[in-house]
């Protein structure tokens, strides 16, 4: 769920958030569901919901740290999810609470998009609170797919809290990241040991391309260039602009010769009405295939210039 370097420490200004136990966050989440009409918190609601700040000034400093885009609002579930991981208690209880926070319909099951949202928003909240590095969204998407693969379910189905548990307790990337938030030995008691972890290279799927089911494609806009059907032609870049010029001359008897058409590349994309650059000699006309290169006898009936 992030890059694990050492035990996590909250950034400056968020020290009051260290006091919570997992049961405190569960009660806080229940108050949010009952009292908050929107999924976002403004500063006053943030102050009253958390209730851990000594003064309004200290709350304002903490709020500004979390409100990174400066719009005066913070995502409530992002805050609660990060606090659930940061809280004191057994990892099993904290990760079960995290599942409940992002179970938007409170049905004890989650759809694919809800699982992706849970991982993405929780990591974003932890990045703001403790400054951990967060993997790209494509890797988070690959992790969501692995959760469904572990549960042996299609992404159109919904996973249960047991499916969520079976993934995070045995996934090496998740367990190594959670070491940052283990405050004592009892936090991991009864969980699988490192020799029982399942190692998955989530970056490999990103390098090979997530594929047409990438949920971020609609946000980026446009189709995947790799999905375009082959045309059988090599892309040679922009084609030069061609000019077509015509030249003829008047004979001594007043008749006009056959017109000759020359195709030349124009310089700078501008048309050259004479068919060749100024001052440049015109290349000789190649003989026609299957015909004699000698001049054809001129007909008596010729076009005259008036």
Count of DSSP H/I helices:
11
Mean pLDDT: 79
Radius of gyration: 36 Å
Task: Give the strand tally.
Answer: 6
| Portion in beta strands | 5-15%
Write up what this structure looks like.
- By secondary structure, this protein is mainly α.
- It has a domain at 15-205.
- Helix content is 38%, strand content 7%.
- The protein contains 11 helices and 6 strands.
- It has a two-stranded antiparallel ribbon. A two-stranded antiparallel sheet has the order 3-4.
- Helix 1 packs antiparallel against helix 4 (76-86), helix 4 packs across helix 6 and helix 7 packs across helix 10.
- The longest helix is centred in the middle third of the chain and has 19 residues, at 112-130.
- Mean pLDDT is 79; it is low at 208-231, 240-244, 265-280 and 300-306.
């Amino acid at each position: 769920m992030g890059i694990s370097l050492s035990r996590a420490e909250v950034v400056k200004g968020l020290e009051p958030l260290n006091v919570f136990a997992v049961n405190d966050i569960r009660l806080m989440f229940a108050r949010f569901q009952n009292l908050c009409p929107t999924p976002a918190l403004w500063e006053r609601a943030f102050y009253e919901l958390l209730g851990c700040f000594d003064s309004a000034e200290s709350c304002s400093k903490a709020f500004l740290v979390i409100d990174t885009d400066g719009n005066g609002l913070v995502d409530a579930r992002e805050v609660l999810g990060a606090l659930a991981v940061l809280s004191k208690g057994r990892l099993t209880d904290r990760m079960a609470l995290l599942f409940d926070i992002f179970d938007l319909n409170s049905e004890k099951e989650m759809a694919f998009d809800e699982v992706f949202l849970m991982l993405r928003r929780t990591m974003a909240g932890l990045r703001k609170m403790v400054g951990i590095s967060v993997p790209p969204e494509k890797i988070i998407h690959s992790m969501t797919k692995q959760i469904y693969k572990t549960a042996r379910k299609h992404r159109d189905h919904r996973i249960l809290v047991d499916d969520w548990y079976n993934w995070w307790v045995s996934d090496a990337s998740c367990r190594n990241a959670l070491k940052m938030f283990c405050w004592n030995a009892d936090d991991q008691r009864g969980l699988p040991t490192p020799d029982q972890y399942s190692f998955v290279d989530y970056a490999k799927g990103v390098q090979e391309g997530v594929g047409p089911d990438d949920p971020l494609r609609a946000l980026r806009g446009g189709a995947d260039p790799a999905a375009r059907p082959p045309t059988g032609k090599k892309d040679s870049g922009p084609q030069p602009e061609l000019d077509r010029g015509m030249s003829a001359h008047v004979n001594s008897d007043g008749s006009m010769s056959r017109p000759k058409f020359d195709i030349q590349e124009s310089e700078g994309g501008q048309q050259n009405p004479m068919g060749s650059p100024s001052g440049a000699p015109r290349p000789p006309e190649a003989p026609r295939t299957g015909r004699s290169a000698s001049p054809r006898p001129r007909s008596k009936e010729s076009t005259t210039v008036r």
